[in-house]
Every structure is written in C-alpha cells, then in structure tokens.
Amino acid sequence: xxxxxxPAEPRRGPRPDPDGGGGSPRDPGLQPERTRLAWRRSALTxxxxxxxAVRQALSGDLGGLLLAGxxxxxxxxxxxxxxxxxxxxxxxxxxxxxLPAVALGAVALAVLGVVLVLRGL
Amino acid sequence: MWESIRRWFxxxxxxxxGSTPDYRFSLANERTFLAWLRTGLALVGGGLAxxxxxxxxxxxxxxxxxxxxxxxxxxxxxxRAVDHWARTERAIRLGEELPASRFPALxxxxxxxxxxxxxxxxxxxxxxxx
Lengths: 121, 130
Description:
The complex is a heterodimer. By secondary structure, chain A is mainly α. Chain A has one domain (32-119). In chain A, 61% of the residues lie in helices and 0% in strands. The longest helix of chain A has 27 residues, at 31-57. In chain B, 27% of the residues are buried. Chain B has helices at residues 2-8, 11-16, 23-53, 62-94, 103-128. By secondary structure, chain B is mostly helical. In chain B, helix 3 runs antiparallel to helix 4. Chain B has a domain at 24-100. Chain B contains 5 helices and no strands.
C-alpha cells in the first residue's frame, strides 16, 4: 500500500465539473455504464427466451422446424441492436429507433409463443 | 393510435420538441424501458415454460390458457414500455410532469390474482387428489 492514510482524497467522488458536464467523458453516477449493463442483461434475457421458444418449436415436423428457424432469425436480427448499445465507451447515441425495434422483437416472440402453444393443442 | 405508433419509430419527431435534456435523464428513461422490456420478456419466457414444463392440469387446456395469457401479457408489457418511454422522453424535453400510469398497479393486481388462483388450484388438487 503506497497510499498513505489521510483525511483528504481529492480525486474521489463527484465534484462540480467546470466544463458544465457537456464534454466530460466521466459521469459521477456511472450512467452510461449502468445503461450498457442494462442492455446486456436484456440481451441475456432475450437469448434465454429464444432458447425456450426454439425448444418448444422443435417437435419433429417441418412446421416446427420453420418456426424454430424464425425464432433464431429474429434473435439474430435484434441481437446486434442490443450489442451496439451494450458495448463501447461514452454514452451511446440515442437514435430512438432501437427501442421500438427491440420491443417489436419481444412482441414477435410473444406472438410466436402463442402460435407454438396453439399448435401443440 | 396510429399517430403514436408512427411517432415511436420517428426519432426526429421526438427530438423536434422542447430542448435536449441532460443525457443522464435520457439514459435513466432508457434503463426504465429496458427494465420493462425484461419484465415483458420474463412473462413471455414464463408462458413458454408453463407450456413446456407444467404437467397437464385437471382442467382441460388450463395449462395452455395460462401460457397464452402470460404470453399476451408479455407482449402488452413490451408495447406499453415503448409508449411510456416515448411519452416520458417527450415530457422531459418539454419540462412537463412525467406521465402518470395505472399500468404497474394493474399488472401487479393481475399477477397477484393469478398467483392466488394457482395457490387455490394447488390446494384443491392436493386435497382432492388423495
């Protein structure tokens, strides 16, 4: 431990930013990091649900195979969106279109799930 | 309704109103959206899990009904997440009050009611199945 014990640690913690925060790469609240991790958590959730859907679809017949393929294609199309916003430094630019697209992917999975459940009847 | 759906997919429209807020507010709004999206995905996953792993219930097709209800609920949560995100973003840009919503309370009631029904079904099965 080279750091001597002392009362003052001037570099820690949030401090007023003289630049006004506009161009500052660091945010005391770690907001960009938290947002990226939230995207990664969501990507993991999507992957798990896709695996469940594929497992349900694979019932041996051709229709099931096609539906499993559809689930995998949907996963492959939406995952890059999660990936783009879940990696990198700095706050990712909010292009506004990623969020509806990602939600649309979730709705598509729900619809696919309903089709799969009704097929099994 | 179509107007608001179109608005979700048009970021320029969203950016044309009000002033650009502190980006941290936008990121917090985005994380809230993601939390709701995961809630929706969890409901979808729950519906798929019910269909695959639950043994057939005494009532005919009850298992499939539970699965479909969970799946539809999951889809509704995802749609509502985008809508709420867009309306919140708009309110932040305009400096207005954040939109209030009954949805969390309704969802909580629905989930709680579903849990109670399942508890009742399990108890009835345990008592009557002997």
